[in-house]
Design brief:
alpha/beta, 8 strands, Rossmann fold, 33% helix, 4 helices
Length: 155
């Protein structure tokens, strides 16, 4: 099982990158071959070499980052039938923040991927003017989600 964890991360704190890396490390600890990359480092045709794609981005203006949206749009026309996928996002916990992960999931489904696990939402909060941190309990939530993803992929 080869899994690509592809992400966009825009804040100086790189919170979404940290989520992607935590997912990748957790999958590797459980014997899954995982490759974690920023979307700009991924050759579009190379996505076909993976059995599963886990894609994530920050929620920005109620939706996924423009970079992730463009990356997924650029995969149109490729055959992903029989491959699995899931989405995740980072966002502030407010009543009106939107949800990038839902949009990512929809684009993955439209590309022909089978969603194997409901998306992960990771909450962040501002620490200082220019830095962000995970809210309490979020790192454990990421690891638990990745452990459940491992079971879903191998079970």
């Amino acid at each position: 099982m080869k899994v690509l964890i592809v992400y966009d991360s825009v804040s100086p704190s790189k919170m979404t990158k940290s989520v992607a890396q935590t997912i990748g490390e957790t999958l590797k600890e459980r014997g899954i071959e995982a490759d974690t990359r920023h979307y700009e480092e991924v050759e579009k045709s190379a996505v076909l070499n993976f059995d599963c794609v886990i894609a994530g981005a920050p929620t920005m203006a109620f939706q996924m980052s423009k970079g992730m949206a463009q990356f997924l749009d650029d995969l149109k026309g490729m055959d992903f039938k029989g491959k699995r996928a899931a989405g995740f996002d980072t966002q502030m916990q407010t009543r009106i923040s939107g949800n990038a992960a839902k949009g990512i999931e929809k684009k993955l489904e439209d590309l022909g991927f089978a969603i194997f696990k409901p998306h992960l939402v990771v909450y962040v909060e501002r620490k200082t003017k220019d830095t962000w941190q995970f809210k309490d309990g979020e790192v454990e939530k990421i690891k638990n989600w990745a452990q459940e993803a491992t079971s879903a992929l191998t079970g």
